[in-house]
Structures are given as C-alpha cells and as structure tokens.
Design brief:
about 170 residues; alpha+beta
C-alpha cells in the first residue's frame, strides 16, 4: 500500500485506534481516513484485505469440506456470510461421497431480500450434478431465525430439486 518510507509509526497509529489487525481491515473507510497518513486510496486498499481473506478462507475450506463434517460446514457458512451488508443466498452441491463439488452465490444487492429464479437453480443442478444440496441464506443485522418467506422459498427449492432427483438437506 505504501511503496516507500517508514510505515512503522502509521502501523502504531492504526493499532492504537483499532487494537488489532482484524479490526483494522474491517474498519470503515471513513474510520481509516481519520488516521493521520491514511488517504482515500490507502483506506480503500486496506478495506480490500477483508475481502481477500474471506476469499482465501472460502477457497481453502471449499477444498476440504465434506457434508458429514458439520464443523467445517458451519465454519464455511460463517466465513461466507459474516459481515455481509446485503442478503446472500448460496447453493452448495455435494457428490455421493459427501464432498463439496461447487458453491454458487446469489445476491441481488438488497438489504432485505434475495431471490433465485428456477432457471438459475436448474442451471446449477445441471452443471454441477450434485446428489445433495444445502441452501444457506443470511439476514444482515437481523435474526438467524428463518422468516415465513424463507420457509416458503425453501419449500419451493425442495420441490424444484425433487423434480431433478436432487435432495435438499436442511
């Protein structure tokens, strides 16, 4: 981010305000810019670290997740959905051994809704060819309890999956 110069004093200012690296990379751009020596560009670059780490964790978990390892599944779900400002829906496809084949994200950039149309669902099933799928969805800043719309959407997805000889695990 800073190609030349001594960044040690700047690092100490960041740590003094945010206490640790995690808090620094998840800080808002305006909070980062409040630190002497951080401008718009450097604040944006720092904020991208969180996205990079999320992508890294997601890709490494993806390589070793099995449907029978509930702890790894929950870790992956948490990493994918934590701190997301909009609703997201993921489909996870698993083979007959329970290994994760593929995940696909559906996000309409809305704070209170996400949808999946039947064509996108059929495309996922036809391209991945999973035996089992898991549907994961978040409510940013809200409850983890499914809404009535969530329950109805899951029933709808289960109906679509049944027509394609695919099982939805819930």
């Amino acid at each position: 981010i800073f190609p030349r110069g001594d960044v040690n004093p700047l690092a100490h200012r960041l740590l003094d305000k945010f206490e640790n690296f995690s808090n620094i990379i998840y800080a808002s751009i305006s909070d980062l810019k409040s630190i002497k020596g951080i401008n718009d560009r450097s604040a944006m670059k720092i904020s991208h670290f969180a996205q990079l780490f999320d992508l890294f964790v997601s890709s490494t978990l993806n390589e070793r997740v099995n449907i029978n390892d509930k702890e790894d599944l929950m870790d992956m779900f948490e990493q994918l959905l934590r701190f997301k400002p909009t609703e997201n829906l993921y489909l996870f496809g698993f083979n007959n051994k329970g290994d994760l084949l593929h995940k696909r994200k559906f996000n309409r950039k809305s704070i209170n809704s996400v949808e999946i149309n039947p064509f996108e669902f059929y495309d996922f099933i036809n391209s991945v060819k999973p035996l089992d799928i898991i549907v994961v969805h978040n409510h940013p800043g809200g409850t983890a309890e499914p809404s009535i719309d969530d329950v109805e959407a899951l029933d709808y997805i289960m109906g679509l999956a049944k027509n394609l000889d695919c099982h939805v695990i819930n």
